[in-house]
Design the sequence.
């Protein structure tokens, strides 16, 4: 019944304003009265901002009543309007469920990369500025709190994990966290985690400073504990790969390892690295077509349109020279290069023209 | 006037530079401009529809309503729809003003328009046999086409086409694909099946008809006839205006026409050259440029179809200087002068003979 009504309403809106919802037709008028309004997104008002570490900015937002909440460990897309464009990036929520329930506010820990397009703007946000966030997304959350668990975090990978641990009210099984960082002054959320360790006997915190301790020492220390536990892993891509390899070698089942793939925010790859491995021929690209993903190795020398077609996908296209905009697609994540100008895109969600885009990093694209 | 290979690549470089300069400064001002046009469009369409009903107070209100609704439709089709569907504002990542999501207040489905206009017309501009926009398969506009008896009354055909222009545009792709009648052409390939074309044509057309001739008259109650006739008149004004503007862009006296053989393996410089020869501008005040969606700068639009159109008048000065440097004819004039040559052309070629428009490249 409900889907039918929804479809009828959508057809009615299309008839009336050629937009799938009346809010989209009326958008320019609504935005006159309510400047932060953006369909499909929620309003969030900046209520606090402080540097958790030298390069990690913690932003607190009061979120709209319509926002449905989150599972600790999930992330949101934060959207800003900058120089006429809407730009967005994913950030993990680092505050607790209790904070949201009592004050309707959430905190995002954002690693600020100087010279990047997005993150330096965060420091310019003033109190009471309205930005937009998406619904909470991602399946990286603590699924079975009754089972013993091992958490492994490195660098800014601590943010989703801290949210899970600090939100937990009823502790049922022993839980340990290995937290690796470069110098304790760069360790975000360390104070809160230490407090938790001192008041909760089931929680053990093991710290590892990469300045004094080699990575292998930490891995060796945690390996004996990994058997028969749920494992939650978040950190830089190289770190996660290493740990996962050691864990599987030690006989840990893959299905017990939960990980956050992209981390809080992907740093932009500097240009030297890109030209350096330009002849290294292919990038893993996931084309999502009508909901189902297709894994494709896309050549860095050809357009993404070419790659999709070679693999039997049939994206719409036209001029193949960047003029007609029939091949515009939503890029979910990853970086591309404009074949014509060599300009690099951002890492976040945005639209690209397949026919003039070459892959630079791994990509996820909705056809 | 034939250019050398070196001159073509120098031309390409100069025009690319003009484009890059504008592209580098796109930002807040462009976003604010197009959002303001969208706001004016919404307000004029909505207030126009309200005033149509208030015609019972005085018919003058009805008349203002008709003009406002026509203005809303013209802004939606020209300065917003046509330009957004070209992807001029895709960089904004806006939920509405995006080439993949925008749908406009006209009978033609946006996807069909992008295939026939953005791709076919803009890639193969004025190539005989490839650009169906040259005469729309209805009008004989040069002696490169064989004369037929039906060309005798093409003045009347033109008038009818202008009055029902939105339906001509919306039927354009189905006619090319011979969906309902005629023999399929072997050299035409489509990414879209005939049934998908039909579905888009009928559903979009029906939505537009239901809105203007059923829904709004019905909710107007006793004022239904006023609303119905007001909508009919607003659509007619929009049709005549868009058709007139578009005819001035490619059918003026001095535009050039090309053969497919001439354009094989052309470089980007040669493509630019063909766009300049195949299009024509007309001059006028800022409000006229906005009402035409800046198609008054058809030459610049064809050179830089994905640059936000408000930059065209400024770019036109640079392009005209470049054209003069390479001795490329730059076709511009007042609106009245340009339109009279269009009308003259339609009338001249309704009779047999006349000059060939194909020029050497």
Sequence:
């Amino acid at each position: 019944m409900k889907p039918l009504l929804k479809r009828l309403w959508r057809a009615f809106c299309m008839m009336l304003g050629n937009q799938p919802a009346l809010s989209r037709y009326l958008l320019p008028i609504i935005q006159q009265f309510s400047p932060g309004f953006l369909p499909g997104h929620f309003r969030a008002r900046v209520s606090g901002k402080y540097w958790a570490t030298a390069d990690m900015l913690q932003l607190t937002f009061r979120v709209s009543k319509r926002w449905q909440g989150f599972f600790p460990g999930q992330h949101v897309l934060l959207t800003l309007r900058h120089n006429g464009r809407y730009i967005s990036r994913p950030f993990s929520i680092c505050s607790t469920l209790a904070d949201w329930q009592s004050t309707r506010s959430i905190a995002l820990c954002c690693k600020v990369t100087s010279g990047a397009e997005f993150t330096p703007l965060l420091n310019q946000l003033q109190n009471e500025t309205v930005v937009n966030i998406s619904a909470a997304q991602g399946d990286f959350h603590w699924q079975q709190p009754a089972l013993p668990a091992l958490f492994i975090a490195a660098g800014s990978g601590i943010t989703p994990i801290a949210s899970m641990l600090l939100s937990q009210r009823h502790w049922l099984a022993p839980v340990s966290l290995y937290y690796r960082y470069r110098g304790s002054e760069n360790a975000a959320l360390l104070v809160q985690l230490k407090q938790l360790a001192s008041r909760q006997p089931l929680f053990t915190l093991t710290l590892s400073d990469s300045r004094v301790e080699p990575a292998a020492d930490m891995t060796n220390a945690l390996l004996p504990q990994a058997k028969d536990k749920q494992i939650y892993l978040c950190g830089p891509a190289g770190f996660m790969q290493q740990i996962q390899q050691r864990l599987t070698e030690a006989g840990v089942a893959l299905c017990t390892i939960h990980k956050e793939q992209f981390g809080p925010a992907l740093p932009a790859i500097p240009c030297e690295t890109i030209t350096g491995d330009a002849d290294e021929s292919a990038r893993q690209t996931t084309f999502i077509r009508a909901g189902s993903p297709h894994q494709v190795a896309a050549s860095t020398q050809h357009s993404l349109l070419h790659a999709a077609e070679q693999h039997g996908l049939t994206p719409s296209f036209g001029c193949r020279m960047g003029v007609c905009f029939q091949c515009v697609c939503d890029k979910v994540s990853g970086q591309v290069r404009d074949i014509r100008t060599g300009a690099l895109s951002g890492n976040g969600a945005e639209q690209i023209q397949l026919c003039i885009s070459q892959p630079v990093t791994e990509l996820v694209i909705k056809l | 006037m034939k250019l050398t290979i070196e001159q073509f690549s120098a031309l390409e470089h100069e025009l690319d530079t003009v484009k890059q300069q504008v592209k580098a400064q796109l930002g807040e001002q462009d976003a604010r401009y197009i959002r303001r046009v969208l706001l004016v469009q919404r307000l004029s369409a909505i207030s126009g529809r309200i005033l149509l009903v208030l015609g019972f107070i005085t018919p003058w209100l009805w008349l203002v309503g008709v003009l406002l609704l026509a203005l809303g439709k013209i802004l939606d089709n020209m300065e917003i729809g046509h330009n957004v569907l070209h992807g001029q504002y895709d960089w904004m990542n806006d939920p509405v003003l995006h080439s993949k999501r925008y749908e406009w207040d006209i009978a033609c489905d946006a996807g069909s328009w992008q295939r026939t206009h953005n791709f076919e017309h803009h890639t193969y501009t004025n190539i005989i046999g490839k650009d169906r926009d040259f005469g729309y398969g209805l009008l004989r506009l040069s002696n490169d086409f064989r004369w037929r008896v039906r060309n005798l009354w093409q003045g009347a055909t033109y008038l009818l086409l202008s009055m029902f222009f939105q339906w001509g545009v919306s039927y354009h792709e189905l006619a090319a694909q011979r969906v309902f009648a005629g023999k399929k052409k072997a050299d035409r390939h489509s990414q879209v099946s005939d049934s998908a074309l039909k579905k888009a044509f009928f559903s979009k057309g029906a939505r537009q008809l239901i809105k203007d001739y059923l829904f709004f008259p019905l909710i107007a109650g006793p004022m239904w006839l006023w609303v119905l006739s007001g909508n009919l008149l607003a659509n007619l004004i929009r049709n005549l205006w868009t058709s007139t503007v578009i005819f001035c862009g490619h059918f003026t006296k001095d535009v050039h026409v090309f053969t497919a053989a001439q354009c094989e393996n052309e470089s980007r410089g040669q493509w630019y050259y063909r766009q300049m020869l195949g299009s024509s501008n007309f001059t006028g005040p800022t409000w006229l440029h906005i009402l035409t969606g800046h198609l008054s700068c058809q030459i610049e639009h064809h050179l830089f179809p994905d640059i936000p159109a408000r930059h065209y008048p400024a770019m036109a000065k640079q392009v005209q200087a470049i054209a003069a440097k390479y001795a490329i004819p730059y076709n511009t004039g007042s609106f009245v002068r340009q339109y009279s040559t269009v009308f003259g052309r339609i009338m001249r070629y309704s009779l047999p003979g006349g000059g060939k428009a194909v020029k050497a490249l």
Q: What stands out?
A: The mean pLDDT of chain B is 92. Chain B touches chain A at residues 20, 26-32, 35, 38-39, 42-43, 85-87, 90-96, 98-100, 103-105, 114-115, 118-119, 122-123, 191, 207, 210-211, 215, 305-306 (CB under 8 Å). DSSP finds 13 helices and no strands in chain B. The radius of gyration of chain B is 21 Å.
